[in-house]
Write a structure and sequence with these properties.
The protein is mainly alpha-helical and about 120 residues long. About 75% of the residues lie in helices and about 0% in strands.
Length: about 120
């Protein structure tokens, strides 16, 4: 069960990282983020999207380290997972409150899944 959960969460987060990279290179996907205010993100926000993709990849590292799929013994994964869970709770709330219908319909379920998945990891392991 853990392997299915971690694999699915990793896959979803890889999709999120790719989405952030597409935003960073100027693809017109802005309706799915930041309240849908921009079709193409302005340059400063593209930088933020690029940085976000790195953060998402680091979250994957925390998940994989927590279940010992990658050997990073010094990484305090349990407290990091609590922080990640709180981050995804805030993300879910922000997506629910978004003025963008696309962001609410697409990004809210993704963030909510990641909340449930992260708490599941904390409970199971």
């Amino acid at each position: 069960m853990i392997s299915v959960l971690v694999s699915t969460m990793t896959f979803v987060l890889l999709l999120v990282a790719m989405f952030q990279l597409l935003l960073a290179i100027g693809k017109p996907l802005g309706a799915y983020t930041l309240g849908g205010y921009y079709t193409v993100l302005p340059l400063p926000l593209r930088f933020v999207s690029a940085l976000s993709s790195v953060v998402v990849l680091l979250i994957i590292v925390v998940y994989l380290s927590h279940v010992q799929w990658i050997p990073i013994q010094w990484l305090p994964t349990t407290p990091l997972l609590w922080g990640i869970a709180i981050f995804f709770i805030l993300n879910t709330i922000a997506n629910l409150l978004s003025k963008s219908t696309k962001e609410r319909r697409v990004m809210t379920p993704i963030a909510a899944f990641l909340v449930v998945g992260t708490f599941s990891l904390l409970i199971i392991t």
